[in-house]
Amino acid sequence: MQDNWKQLKISGLSKKFLRGPVILSDINLTVDRGAFLCILGPSGCGKSTLVDLIAGFEPPSEGVISFDATPIRGPGPDRVVIFQDISNALFPWLTVLENTEFVLKNFVRNKNQRRDQAMQALELVGLGGDTQKFPSELSGGMKQRVQIARGLVMDPHVLIMDEPFAALDAITRRRMQYELKDLWERTHKTVIFVTHDITEALIMATKVTILSSGPGAHILDSFDPGLASDRDPADAEFINAYRRVESLIGNEHNDSESHAE
Ligand SMILES: Nc1ncnc2c1ncn2[C@@H]1O[C@H](COP(=O)(O)OP(=O)(O)OP(=O)(O)O)[C@@H](O)[C@H]1O
Ligand SMILES: [Mg+2]
């Protein structure tokens, strides 16, 4: 896999499972290297399906996903996925450090090197002092930080996160949003982040993509919210961006309600 890629490109992507309707319909999207893309859309519209396709867990029915001109065929260590599940994701019998080292087992042969890389990733997420703890000793936010460290340690091209903070309480969740934004600023990893929450998306995103309601979801709009690095949901520009996204999603709800009548 080439290291000097510039864009992840999704072209003419559609997805239909063996049973049921078309889920995603003609999705076209580019993600620049180093971007923080947030994907928003109504519940059940196909956000997780879209990221499963990007991760390579599912093949497209039509269309192509590629790094520049190189198509993705199946999962690979260049794309790491972090899910919302904080209770079952870690091995309870391994320490934080061992949990993080473990994911490198098939990729890095030297044990000391695995340890060094795992330590670096744990330092990045602020867990440098908690490496000998077991998962049962961690808060929800700390568990999710271990998961992020396990993603970072692979040094992937893209970190894919499917509602990673949905199971956290509101205060921890907000803190994690700012922490992740800070981490992204320090590492400049490309992030694709799925959420229902407009504020969450706007705290972090350099680009937002809004999906329509399904079946046959398509992209309603994709844009750079144009917010300063130092973002506050109370700022006028933040509120404007919020309203723009909300009206897109709101119109969609109204449309689908009127279609249903
Ligand atoms: N393996 C599958 N086989 C058949 N249908 C599926 C499969 N996976 C997902 N679907 C269907 O695809 C649609 C989109 O599901 P998906 O989980 O992608 O939505 P979502 O936007 O992530 O929803 P949520 O916001 O609730 O997380 C749903 O109708 C779901 O039933
Ligand atoms: Mg989902």
Could you give a short description of this structure?
The protein has 7 helices and 10 strands. It has helices at 47-55, 96-102, 111-124, 140-152, 170-187, 198-204, 236-260, and strands at 7-16, 22-32, 36-40, 62-67, 70-71, 79-82, 158-162, 190-194, 207-211, 219-223. The protein has a 6-stranded mixed beta sheet, sandwiched between helices. It has a 4-stranded antiparallel beta sheet with strand order 2-1-4-5, covered by helices on one side.
Which spans have pLDDT < 50 for at least 5 consecutive residues? Answer: 257-261
CATH fold annotation of the largest domain: Rossmann fold
* Structural classification: alpha/beta
- The topology string of helices and strands comes to EEEHEEEHHHEHEHEEH
* Rg over alpha carbons: 19 Å
Provide key terms for this protein.
binds adenosine-5'-triphosphate, 10 strands, 2 domains, alpha/beta, 261 residues, Rossmann fold, single chain, binds magnesium ion, six-stranded mixed beta sheet
Could you give the topology of this structure?
Layout: E1 7-16, E2 22-32, E3 36-40, H1 47-55, E4 62-67, E5 70-71, E6 79-82, H2 96-102, H3 111-124, H4 140-152, E7 158-162, H5 170-187, E8 190-194, H6 198-204, E9 207-211, E10 219-223, H7 236-260
Parallel strand pairs: 3-8, 3-9, 6-7, 7-8
Antiparallel strand pairs: 1-2, 1-4, 4-5, 9-10
Helix pairs in contact: 2-3, 2-4, 3-4
Bound molecules: adenosine-5'-triphosphate (ATP) and magnesium ion.
